[in-house]
Amino acid sequence: MADDPKFYRARAAAEHAAAQAATLDNVRERAERAERAWTQMAERAEGVRAQRDLREAAAAMAAGRLHPAQ
C-alpha cells in the first residue's frame, strides 16, 4: 500500500461516492476533504515514482547500460 497511487485513487473515488450519497452537510464536507487528501497523496506518489524512474534512467545511462535513444 505504501505510496501506491492506485490505492490512493481508489480511496479518493470511494470518498467521492460517499460525498455524493451524503445527506448531511458535515458528512459531505468531511468526505470531500478526504477525497482531496487522497487525491493529493496519489499525485505526490505519482510524482515520486516519475522522479525515481528518471534517476534510475540517468544512472543506467551513466553506467553505460542504456543509450539515450532507448
Helix-strand layout with pairing:
Layout: H1 5-21, H2 25-62
Helix pairs in contact: 1-2
Structure description:
- By secondary structure, this protein is an all-alpha fold.
- It has 2 helices and no strands.
- It has helices at residues 5-21, 25-62.
- Helix 1 packs antiparallel against helix 2 (25-62).
- The two termini are 31 Å apart.
- The mean pLDDT is 91.
Task: Summarize the structure in short.
The chain has 70 residues and is mainly α. 79% of the residues lie in helices and 0% in strands. Helix 1 runs antiparallel to helix 2.
Structural class label? mainly alpha
Strand content: under 5%
Quaternary structure: single chain
Main sheet record: none
Distance between the termini: 31 Å
Number of separate strands: 0
Mean pLDDT: 91
Fraction in helix: over 70%
**How large, in whole angstroms, is the Cα Rg?**
18 Å
**How would you sum up the global shape?**
rod-shaped
Query: Secondary-structure element sequence?
Result: HH
User: How many alpha or pi helices?
Assistant: 2
Which residues form runs of ≥5 with pLDDT under 50?
none
